[in-house]
Amino acid sequence: MRLKRNKANILQWLFNKYLALVDRTVMIVWQEENIYGDSQIFGFWHEDSFFMNLVLEKLAHKTTPVDVIVTADTRGNYIENMIKQCGGNALRVPDGYKAYASLKKIVQDTYEKSRSIAVALDGPLGPRHEPKKLAFYLSEHAEEEFVGISLSYSSCLRLTRRWDKYVIPLPFTTVTVAVKNYGIVEKNAVPALPVSAQAPDRGGACKQSEESLKGVL
After folding, report:
1. Is 211 exposed, middle or buried, given 0-12, 13-18 or 19+ CB atoms closer than 10 A?
2. DSSP state string for the chain
3. Residues 18, 20, 22, 24: is their CA dihedral positive or negative?
4. Which range, 70-84, 89-103, 145-159, has the best average confidence (pLDDT)?
5. Which of 65, 87, 139, 209 would staple 146 via disulfide (CB 3.0–4.6 Å)?
6. Above 90 in pLDDT, residue 158?
7. 107-127 confidence digits (pLDDT tens)
8. Is the peptide bond between 127 and the residue preceding it cis, with omega within 30 degrees of 0?
């Protein structure tokens, strides 16, 4: 048990250090179609979860503080740790039917319009690029605008054996961040959402990688 805990602590330390390295060396190109100020519902693809920590940290300076919905199981521990490093707050929600009570409280809290919420649209376990209705349910019932965020990378590693093809950006990467406001979206009228941003032609591409972190990320 102690060995397992030490391993988890080492992995969290590595994730945090690498995230800090990316933060210092990356260049972000913003493509924004959104007016900030009030609380909003932010949606992104699960494969972009790593870099979204930095995106949400920067968006928090433009809008209300951002809470990120994260799975309550062990996988969420690493995610919550990185979210906290970036000054955010994680809302731990169980998978499946156990999520009802937690989601009910989140919906009630959004009525106060004091905080924004971010959620991986196809999380926690896919299918990839098939948005679930949670973000749009929150948008509809709390009457909050839904804002879609899509990313593209000039250079990165992509873990191809994971269901989401998880992306780890490399240092000195250019990341294009497209932010688009869709207004209040009903859960039964989900718009077509881009799977990546339209990046300027800067060369480079994500490299395919064997999944060496299966069961961790």
Report:
1. middle
2. -HHHHHHHHHHHHHHHHHHHHHHHH-EEEEEEE---SS--EEEE-GGGHHHHHHHHHHHTTTSS-EEEEEESSTHHHHHHHHHHHTT-EEEEE-SGGGGHHHHHHHHHHHTT-SSEEEEETTTTT--TT---SHHHHHHHHHT--EEEEEEEESSEEEETTSTT--EEEPTT-EEEEEEEE--S--TTSPPP--SS---------EEEE--SSTTT-
3. negative
4. 145-159
5. 139
6. yes
7. 766 656 678 899 999 988 899
8. yes
Residue type, 67: D
What is the widest separation between alpha-carbon atoms in the chain?
Answer: 49
